[in-house]
Amino acid sequence: MEKTPASPALHLADVTMFWGPASGGVRRYLEAKRHHIAGCPDCQHSLLVPGPHPAWSADANQWLRQLPAWRLPAGDGYRFPLRSGPWREALIELAPDAIEAGDPYVTAHAAQAAAKQLGVPAVGFFHSDLSRLLALRCGDWVRPLSGRYLGRLYRRFDWMFAPSDVMASQLAELGVRHVSVQRLGVDTSIFRPSAVQPGLRDALGIPRDARLLVFAGRNTREKHVDQLVASLDELDGRYYLLLIGAGMPVGSHPRLRVVDYVADEHTLAAYLASADALLHAGDAETFGLVILEAMACGLPVVGVDAGATPELVDEAVGELVPTARAAALARGVTRLFERDWLATGAAARRRAVRHYGWGPQLDRQLLRMSQLCREGRVSDDSGAEASWPHKGSVSA
């Protein structure tokens, strides 16, 4: 029988190292995927992630399995698997119908090896721009090396998902042809304008007539948090900035407020909905999930015209600035509030609801996965299609 989302035998497994106590977009994507599949009696979902010790989830389905991995120094709690063998064996034990790898490291190689042994498709998701991240830390000399590595790795997957057009273009430049754009989504019943929390501004010591800008994310180099803070000096005293995330620069400006990492989506939505606009200086976004979450809360967005941000933001829902410098960011904020910024925020909410609900996004992905399970074709390292044996014809 062909396997489709209506077939009870469809079992999907995800594996990633992007799972930690302060995880961001990848974890929210995987949790949304889990919730969506839980509502489909025809599908089963398993997730394999790193942790301090071996463990299974406590619920009866035991859908989440944790394998021990080395904790990254200054890595916000992320852990890095050093050996692929235990991950390969755990995936083989799960015996899914398709495996999705969410990072380009050890777990990706384990996913490919397990899929080959099981005779099932291996799928990659290009969540992270590894070449750019390495170049920021090591210099541009590393780009050709990382590009060759990524090209070889991703050409060995049976299919690749990219969260944005810009990331799909990067895969094409690496010679990866079997790609589809799989955008992320937002739960518009949680992230909504009515999530505003009365009294939150008073609790933060923000005047009621202030214009509150907000950013949520990690304090990493490519987010340019220092430029967000510096933009306050380019703006008049009405403007305050709220930073939400681990490692933010507490006390670095009198009109700056900082809240530690927020794991609960309802709490994050309350902070976002209580602000007036999102100020986002990231110029290397692979998708920009917090942008979408802010839009769903009815916030207009000031962002940088780079990375995937322009795929979400235009003049109808905010302002784009040419660089992630404080002066440019401040000019974007000024232009936004010279307009009818409330109407712009309302347009942002409408766009999020109309185009980015999790349900349609994940239904599209499940359709692609079911097609891969049916087709019995893969692409080899050269990009040419080759036959692969269906699950059950290879001994585990």
UniProtKB/TrEMBL annotation:
Swiss-Prot/TrEMBL keywords: Glycosyltransferase, Transferase
Domain of life, per lineage: Bacteria
Name of the featured protein: Glycosyltransferase
EC number: 2.4.-.-
Transmembrane feature ranges: none
Organism per entry: Guyparkeria halophila
Enzyme class, UniProt record, top EC level: transferase
InterPro entries membership: Glyco_trans_4-like_N (IPR028098), Glycosyltransferase_grp1 (IPR050194)
Residue span(s) of domain Glycosyltransferase subfamily 4-like N-terminal: 24-189
Xref: PANTHER family: SULFOQUINOVOSYL TRANSFERASE SQD2
Gene Ontology molecular-function annotations: glycosyltransferase activity
